[in-house]
Amino acid sequence: MRPIIPVRALRVSARPVLSTSSRAFCKREFSSAINRAPSRLLRFAALAAGAGIAGGLTLAMQDQLSAEAAPRLPSSPDLSNVKLELIEDSSAPMRERMAAFVKLLQKEIVDALQKEEQDGSNAVYTDKNGKSVDAAEGRKPASFIVEAWKREQGGEGISCVIQDGVVFEKGGVNVSVVHGQLPPSAIRQMSADHGELIERVGYVTEGPNAQVDSLPFFATGISLVIHPKNPFAPTSHLNYRYFELGHPEKLRDGSPNPRYNPNEPAAWWFGGGSDLTPMYLYEEDAEHFHKTVKAAADSQDKAFYPAWKKWCDSYFWITHRDENRGVGGVFFDDVSLPSWSKARSYIPLQDGSKHSTSELVSSLQHDKDSLFSTMQALGHSYVPSYVPLVHKRKNEPYNEDNVEWQRLRRGRYAEFNLVYDRGTKFGLMTPGARMESILMSLPLHARWEYMEPSSGTGREHSVAAAGRREEAVRTTPADELKAREIIQSVLEKPREWA
Amino acid sequence: MRPIIPVRALRVSARPVLSTSSRAFCKREFSSAINRAPSRLLRFAALAAGAGIAGGLTLAMQDQLSAEAAPRLPSSPDLSNVKLELIEDSSAPMRERMAAFVKLLQKEIVDALQKEEQDGSNAVYTDKNGKSVDAAEGRKPASFIVEAWKREQGGEGISCVIQDGVVFEKGGVNVSVVHGQLPPSAIRQMSADHGELIERVGYVTEGPNAQVDSLPFFATGISLVIHPKNPFAPTSHLNYRYFELGHPEKLRDGSPNPRYNPNEPAAWWFGGGSDLTPMYLYEEDAEHFHKTVKAAADSQDKAFYPAWKKWCDSYFWITHRDENRGVGGVFFDDVSLPSWSKARSYIPLQDGSKHSTSELVSSLQHDKDSLFSTMQALGHSYVPSYVPLVHKRKNEPYNEDNVEWQRLRRGRYAEFNLVYDRGTKFGLMTPGARMESILMSLPLHARWEYMEPSSGTGREHSVAAAGRREEAVRTTPADELKAREIIQSVLEKPREWA
């Protein structure tokens, strides 16, 4: 093997706020510096210099003598520059109000999860030989890495990620506030996902009669996926977002656009939801999650939860497996006002997937403010809906069988996100997007077994499947197999929980 | 947790050949029977009965007293009913010749891999605490499970899968021979992938002027993915297939189709290739693989390898990661004759992806026979191109760092297959397809790390990335980091190997 040190160009499109200089960071120089450095201290200094750490953080070099002293980023988002008062100010633009709200919610959630991680876990892990050990392997709780970034094309965000903790195996809570121009290809994708909301905008964007080259957009949202370490603690996902499409200032031929109005979007909508993915079913946990979310939705409009619970079961369906990703929650998209839509219902819900037949009809009078209120009520329900479940399950003793099943279920989670999830697909197709922020939802560990006997072709009607089942019965305790079967049956046939 | 035993309907679309009766196998009865059975013997008997094992295999019940005695399927495909003489018979239809060839090749490959597994591994595994153990953990070599199946809609196949072996972590070698009617949605997908080959067929299949409702098709092929256990042994993939589109007997309005001819397809083509995915780069391994495949291709036409190597690098590109799935090999599709295509080149190659600019131009006179010859030469080159690499690397000692990197690379493999691979996507969209045969390509274990410092955002220009790199330098040996960097650089910039 020849020692080849590659020159690798920096492919950063989301520029970190804390970084300052030397954007042409060259891997060759970085690697050579490391290899030349005689001591760990110097090796770190080379790394720090190579990475351009200078202005944002002051490096106390003497601290580097301790192996613990890696450069530390804050473990909680900083709200000192966020105008939280905008959230309540109904005269302010919704863009700014929603952006302030998602940052507030991010901090609320990250702090609650960090506290749960800090609190630790005393779970005992038993391996195949029956040997029991501390599941945390003597490690200390992990901290969220909080990183602010700017998008060159316009916008900013904060990524908060925790990895390899004692309570959380992997999790990310991201917010972003971005704006720019949507090219026809992205509009096409958006039309496929959002139906008539795009039609309503009323511009021809492709073909010989195209009136405009692109449409201005604005988007802000919060997105999270949390994968706990303990197989009995459920995974959860949340996303709340606000989207605007604007009128272009000029038409394609250069003439002024008569419809141009910077203060009035051509279309706007809210979308989002939160949902739960347990590896093992505790009915009381699924009920707690759903009831908490439902109470928040009901506080705004009793018509919301039934429609959005149904939509959630439909959206997270893994068609090729004929099963759901989890036990659901709420999901909705394109939530706007009747004046923005041709639909009959008061708050129109268009679902592109053929699974959903839900249509939300409410007798209440909503306005943009009351819809934003709904986002807030639902967003704030996340911590009380989910964190108590982690708290309750994180100390459960578990064994190798439980971990295998957990990883297998996480393989299905990865399948859903890579094959179906709108946000992930949109991100993967967006040049210049920060891939690992998009793929942060993927688990640390996943497993795919051929002919798995509780959830795969091992259940089928064949000699080989019978062999796999016989093997499972021989090597796996009966209560474990039964527990797998119970959650599997719920995934295949969604239930009501609240 | 309430003990809920679900009734689960059988969702078998690929009916196993060996099974016979009781297709309405009911999970509730099966589970209850297990739970009532007082002994392992009876529990197995319940399983066997539930699975409807009767005619195909004779169950010697006394054998079940030993826990080892699961029903055994053959570990090598049976060729006794395959007319191998057809392969050489140029007067026989290509459908039958190719079907016989892929079955022959499947046996050749499965037997070679099974021999390698049987031969075992004496690799030593060292964990994070420096403790070294037998990597096989005292387990015995695994056997391929060979299972023949029939497709209700028309066709048959043989799946050979090995899992959790001492040499192979997971691998499958599948052949299928299927036929039926392609609905307009599948024709649309095929048009996207195969460009003018479909156009050439010349039927309007959609819209108010549609002439036909569907098109008859025939497809036969072999498809394999092998994931060895040792992180220094590379993963490999192979696929060779033959496809025909036919003329429908009747047009949509019920009138006879003047173009109907059961002996002359409307279009036919070969496609396939084989490629290598090492986790660590041994240049001599990549060279051996490429040289062996190139020699086989050169034996037919020296124009093949250069064009198909390039196409391979383009096809297996993971766009969102800006890196290749592996170090390549050969890949081609739509290989037909000029009379079947409008393209200028002798053997037209149309690549739908925007990456490829390759166009194969040969001065040799090919016919359908010589193209089939090429499939055979390439197919037979797989065992000598790949198995010696496994043999050479399977005993290498390895440690926890190596396994982590292997699983991380396998996460990327899963990303490619779920997001981009034509065959997988086509399969996931096909109702009634056997999902776990399609997803057999997924690894047993995969890993996704946020900010991984050798291949992910941990290389970026930020304080957090610098922290991740510092952590990697502190916790991972320098030679391991360098080895990761070497393979990463090759994945990002494909090289010539032969």
Automatic annotation (TrEMBL), chains A, B:
- Family to which the UniProt record says this protein belongs: Belongs to the aerobic coproporphyrinogen-III oxidase family.
Query: Where does this protein act, in terms of pathway?
Result: Porphyrin-containing compound metabolism; protoporphyrin-IX biosynthesis; protoporphyrinogen-IX from coproporphyrinogen-III (O2 route): step 1/1
Q: Which Pfam families match?
A: Coprogen_oxidas
Subunit architecture: Homodimer.
Q: What is this protein called?
A: coproporphyrinogen oxidase
Q: Where is this region: Disordered?
A: 453-477
Key words, A-Z: Oxidoreductase, Porphyrin biosynthesis
Q: Where is the composition biased (Basic and acidic residues)?
A: 458-477
UniProt EC number: 1.3.3.3
GO MF terms here are: coproporphyrinogen oxidase activity
- The broad enzyme category this protein falls into is oxidoreductase
Gene Ontology biological process terms from the UniProt entry = protoporphyrinogen IX biosynthetic process
Q: Which gene encodes it?
A: HEM13
Determine the domain of life of the protein's source: Eukaryota
- Source organism per entry reads Malassezia cuniculi
